[in-house]
Design brief:
single chain; Beta-Lactamase
Length: about 230
């Protein structure tokens, strides 16, 4: 916990932006976000990121600063209620100042109080189509977070969302490169086998793809495997 002023927050945001742009794994980037958001809070807190996929059926806790976060996310998954789920699925920002009098998620609130957590802020992350997420911060005291803290969490949530989208883009690029290499190898084999040029070999793949409703990359892999 630190007593940060406005200048300290700005410097921390600049530092985290630089760290997220450096070559690091997604897990390292997200751990930087959750560790920083806890450090910037004036009261004791813990943080994590919840990712929801599979139509709301799969929950994943990412970069938690405390073992309490996976437990809280599992509880929300089982109950189907809680601030993290609400933020990830339908709301931009969800805030609860005191779980002891929280009417929106009575079962979750009671369990959170039992774990010593009394307040929370959850901010929705834009991740990708088919996957939702939220940056979640829990306080050990009621009314632990004010408007300034909420703005800080929103700013760091933007960093987390960028890291997630960048990772998805990198994955798509790797997949595209791999598919291109597979298709190129298959084209070469067809050119040799049927004594055709590259354009004709690709036409053979696209025609068969359309007739069988099979992606070209899958057909190309079959060609390579069967030689």
């Amino acid at each position: 916990m630190s007593d940060f002023g406005g200048g300290d927050v700005s410097r921390s945001m600049a530092d985290i932006a630089r760290s997220l742009s450096a070559p690091r794994s997604l897990d390292e980037r997200l751990r930087t976000v959750t560790a920083t958001v806890v450090e910037l809070m004036p009261a004791r807190a813990c943080a994590g990121i919840l990712l929801v996929s599979g139509g709301g059926k799969r929950f994943e806790t990412v970069a938690p600063t405390s073992d309490l976060l996976p437990e809280l996310d599992h509880l929300q998954e089982r109950l189907g209620q809680g601030p993290c789920v609400a933020a990830a699925v339908s709301n931009l920002v969800v805030r609860s100042d005191d779980f002891r009098v929280e009417p929106r998620w009575p079962q979750f609130a009671e369990a959170a109080v039992g774990l010593g957590l009394l307040s929370a802020i959850s901010v929705q992350l834009y991740t990708s189509e088919g996957k939702m997420g939220a940056l979640n911060l829990f306080g050990f005291a009621p009314h632990a977070f004010g408007p300034e803290e909420e703005a800080t969490v929103e700013s760091l949530a933007a960093h987390a969302a960028l890291a997630l989208m960048a990772a998805r883009t990198e994955e798509q690029l790797r997949s595209a490169v791999a598919s291109r290499d597979v298709i190129g190898q298959a084209k070469g084999m067809l050119m040799e086998r049927f004594d055709v040029d590259a354009i004709r070999a690709f036409d053979m793949l696209t025609t068969l793809s359309q007739e069988t409703n099979t992606p070209i990359s899958v057909l190309a892999q079959h060609v390579i495997e069967r030689r």
